[in-house]
Amino acid sequence: MPGALDGVRVLDLSWGIAGPLGVLLLAEQGADVIKVEPPGGDPFRDYSGYAVWNRSRRSVTVDLKQPAGADAFRRLAADADVLVETFRPGVTDRLGIGYDALHELNPRLVYMSCPAYPDGHRLAQRPGYDALVQASSGQQWEQPGWRPGPIFLHMPMPSMGAMFLVPTGIITALIAREETGRGQHVRTSLFQGALLYTTQIWSWVPGASWQFYGTMAKTYPPGVHQEMIFEVADGKYVHSSIMSGLTPVKSQDAILGLPDPSDPERYMMLSPEERAELTPKRRAAYRQRERDGLIDEFRANNHAIEAVESMEVALGAGGSPHSQLVANDMIAEVDDPVLGHTTQVGVPIHLAGTPGAIRGPRPTPGQHNEEIFGELGYSPAEIAKFTGVA
């Protein structure tokens, strides 16, 4: 069955996380995505996530610094609907494939640019890796951690934010094209992806009280949320949420059989010293309880609690995956050309009338050179010259 974006051709020149993962969301809703790589392939191909992020598309290799390669790419762009690139501002113009040149060639083209920093930013011409954008955007300073001052964020927030902005911008421009008949230049960046999250919460950490650190800290020393992960019997774990909004019938301390149960309404306001006195007693009580029975008792008393599972369990290693993941088509078996048989996450957006689907594993570099460039009239010998494939 055709997907919702069937007939939309996307030229994907992006590297890293945001572009490939954002384009994946389009590819698996039916878009014909052609990954355009330099001879030898995308330099990030060895990154573990690439096996998933670059599936469901075809690949060609093109040396854009060769006149013949740039000309071949322009011929591809002449009939494309979307182009996605993640170069520093000005690079595509120097290659002769910038927005102005391609828009003149193909006025319907939606041209998405997602560099590290937006054009005009004081750092726009600097190397722009995710961690550096974390640093310059304030994210490393703003996130509470195991000590005062900045910390490294293990989640690549700038890229993960931009990953949502890339397909959103593209779809918005495609809808606008239905009215105007013309494409446009759509611009975002990793920097703007980082700021996407600060539109939801912004706190001035250097001036914050100890209560802020105690609530939000996610590393060492542990904050309130970290202290809600408990080991139970048989080396298993549970997470008991203290911010669920539920009104418990019995407190967790009463369920655990602790003397002098604490007031759950006051727990957030306890000082670190008071929590340090209470928490070891709770941990000892939790370790005496079998996980499933404890979860049932907590839920019966209106507590929000969940088993802490590993990704191996969630994805079904060593047994059947969670039934809900199977029911939601979130488990997929994919034969990767390099890794072999793999278990991957499935398509995360479900359309009832035009369902998305995985359309094949990630291609090898230039796997579709002859197929795609042959359609443009190039001979195998001509293709070999500008693709770097002997």
What is the architecture of the largest domain at the second tier of CATH?
Answer: 3-Layer(aba) Sandwich
- Briefly note the structural class of the backbone: alpha/beta
Query: How many runs of DSSP E, i.e. beta strands?
Result: 11
Provide the residue-averaged pLDDT: 86
Number of helical elements? 17
Assembly form of the protein: single chain
Please outline the major beta sheet.
6 strands, parallel
Q: Report strand %.
A: 5-15%
Distance between the termini: 37 Å
What is the fold named in CATH at topology level of the largest domain?
Rossmann fold
CATH superfamily of the largest domain: Crotonobetainyl-coa:carnitine coa-transferase, domain 1
Q: What's the gyration radius in Å?
A: 26 Å
User: How many separate domains make up the residues?
Assistant: 2
Classify the helix fraction into a percent range. Answer: 25-40%
The outline comes out as elongated
Order of helices and strands: EHEHEHEHHEHHHEHHEEHHHEHHEEHH
**Strand order, largest beta sheet:** 3-2-1-4-5-6
- CATH class membership of the largest domain: Alpha Beta
Low-confidence regions? none
